[in-house]
Structures are given as C-alpha cells and as structure tokens.
Amino acid sequence: MKIIIVVIAVIVVLSFGVYFFVLSNRDNTTEDADATQNNQEDIQQYTDITSEELAEMLVNKDFKLIDVHVPEQKHVPDTDYLITYTDIDEFKKIFPNKDEKVVLYCRSGSMSRNMAEKLVEQGYINIYNLTFGMNEWLSEKRDTVPIGSVNN
Description:
Elements: H1 2-42, E1 47-49, H2 51-59, E2 64-67, E3 81-82, H3 88-94, E4 102-105, H4 110-121, E5 127-130, H5 133-139
Parallel strand pairs: 1-5, 2-3, 2-4, 4-5
C-alpha cells in the first residue's frame, strides 16, 4: 500500500513539474514572438506586385523600373535601368534619394526580392518587387523589348 502511495505521489510531482516547465517555455516563446514581430514592424518593407499590377502602373508611370537580372534578358517596356541585383553601390549612386519610387524585376522574382530586401535594410522606403518576374510577364503574353535596349 505504501508503494502505491509513493508511486502516486511521484506521478503527481512529475506532472506538476512537466506542467510548469511547459508553461514557462510557452511564455518565453510568446515573448520572443512578440519581440520579433515588433522588430519586423519597425523595418519598412517593400511591396510585392503582380504582372497585372505593374501593367496598370505603367499606364501613368511615376516610378523608375529596373531590371536586376543576370544575365541580361528581354525587358519590360519602359525599363529605365539595368542594374545587377548584387550591385547595391550602383543603385545608391543612381538613386541617392531613399524615398524615390522604384520597381525591381528579374526573371523569376528571386533576384529582385534579394535586392529589395537589401535596399530596405539600407533605408529605402518606396520599393516594389515584381513577385514572379518576367516569367509571369511573359506567361501573360505581354510586350517586351530586346536585350541591349536598356541603358545601365
């Protein structure tokens, strides 16, 4: 009988221990998540756009359009610059004003997303990214201009 009471007591003590351990870790996780969310809110983010949204924006163009793809590809009409996605210094020379509205694109969206993230880290606040790049633009059978037709 004494053994049963001891076993039950051990189970109860262990249960409370596990309960408090889980509870304390959950509170820390919640605090960490809240801190991460607050830090992300402090950072200005870029805006993802679709091919359709870019086409609409081009009607009354009030931004600079930059192809960041390597190697050079066909371009969206009215592309202003060809700047390699890794050449942040070149971008900063051309666009010293961090408020200037800029749309970036590449073939699939990964290079332009990479550059958009780097520009946001540098303090640029009006950056747009063509989410699926030229792949989406071409799949919708939109016009292009040939390689070599954009100044860098």
